[in-house]
């Protein structure tokens, strides 16, 4: 049977990994995050609450392992004070558009109207993560989710979202 790659089709209908971090969960921001992605027209194809192991958090952020904040970042993600809400969203250009919905890494640089621009102040508590490239999305989706946890399903109203599909 045909199986899509984890992140879908590059430049077409893609999938991205979005994670509400423990501060976002603790502050009750999940509903608004889901609302923003749904209202844009994106489709939720996987979601779970998870306290990541240290190994998972370190693998997720392995590109940052030499940075001075790495240890604190891993402790923040794994503390268990609240779970990470891990999600996979699907749709055209969702990787790049997801980053636009989220806003700049430093919330003080993030535009009002973006998630970080509206809800946070500190780079060390910036409430949400989104894959930054097709390669990162592939890696992150397969790191956080098993294949059977990600669903292929179609919006009944897709023709009202896309004119060129
Ligand atoms: N100077 C810093 N101090 C503390 N934490 C930081 C700092 N810079 C980055 N971080 C943390 O590391 C995460 C990853 O940093 P990165 O530069 O990859 O930004 P990003 O891609 O916007 O964030 P994310 O990968 O979480 O979506 C940031 O989201 C933030 O939680």
TrEMBL record:
Sites where the protein binds ATP? 21, 69, 99, 105, 116, 126
NCBIfam families reported in the protein's UniProt record: PRK00668.1
Protein name per UniProt: Nucleoside diphosphate kinase
Q: Which SMART domains does the protein's record reference?
A: NDK (SM00562)
- Necessary cofactors: Mg(2+)
The record's keywords, sorted A to Z, are: Kinase, Transferase
Q: Does the keyword Transferase apply?
A: yes
What Enzyme Commission number(s) appear in the record?
2.7.4.6
Q: Where is the Nucleoside diphosphate kinase-like domain?
A: 13-152
The protein's matches in InterPro entries, at most eight in alphabetical order, are given as:
NDK-like_dom (IPR034907), NDK-like_dom_sf (IPR036850), Nucleoside_diP_kinase (IPR001564)
Q: Where is the active site?
A: 129
Name the PROSITE patterns on file. Answer: NDPK_LIKE
The record's Gene3D superfamilies line, in alphabetical order, gives: Nucleoside diphosphate kinase-like domain
- Flavoprotein found in the keyword field: no
Instruction: Report the family membership.
Output: Belongs to the NDK family.
Q: Which gene encodes it?
A: ndk1_1
**Which residue stretches, if any, does this entry annotate as coiled coil?**
none
Q: What class of enzyme is it?
A: transferase
């Amino acid at each position: 049977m045909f199986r899509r790659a984890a992140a879908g089709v590059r430049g077409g209908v893609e999938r991205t990994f979005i994670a509400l971090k423990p501060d976002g969960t603790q502050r009750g921001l999940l509903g608004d995050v889901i609302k923003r992605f749904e209202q844009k027209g994106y489709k939720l194809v996987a979601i779970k609450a998870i306290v990541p192991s240290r190994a998972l958090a370190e693998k997720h952020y392995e590109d940052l392992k030499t940075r001075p904040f790495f240890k604190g970042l891993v402790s923040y993600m794994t503390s268990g004070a609240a779970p990470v809400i891990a999600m996979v969203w699907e749709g055209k250009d969702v990787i790049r558009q997801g980053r636009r919905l989220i806003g700049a890494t430093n919330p003080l640089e993030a535009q009002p109207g973006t998630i970080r621009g509206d809800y946070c102040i500190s780079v060390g508590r910036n409430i949400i993560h989104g894959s930054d490239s097709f390669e990162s999305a592939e890696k992150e989706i397969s790191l956080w989710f098993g294949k059977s946890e990600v669903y292929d399903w179609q919006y009944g109203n897709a023709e009202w979202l896309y004119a060129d599909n």
